[in-house]
Amino acid sequence: MKRLSEIGIGKKAIIKSFEKDEIFIKLMEMGCIPGEIIGVEQVAPLGDPISVSVAGYNLSLRLNEADQIFVEEVD
């Protein structure tokens, strides 16, 4: 399992779990739920934030947020 912050641009992954419960509710409200496919669309020039597609829309996440999402990369 990897962290979302380790997934490259253009790659997709399935959300598996979260590291901390505090961020879990915030991310679930944004559509980041276990089992959902998430794709990394863009990374800012300095690496933070990243743009992801999840649940049919685009979302910007800070690296510290992406670092707390565990995913399994898909082909």
From TrEMBL:
Keywords: Iron. It holds the Pfam family FeoA. SMART domains: FeoA. One of its GO terms (molecular function) is transition metal ion binding. Gene3D superfamilies: 2.30.30.90. Residues 2-73 form the Ferrous iron transporter FeoA-like domain. It comes from the Bacteria. This is Ferrous iron transport protein A. It comes from Panacibacter microcysteis.
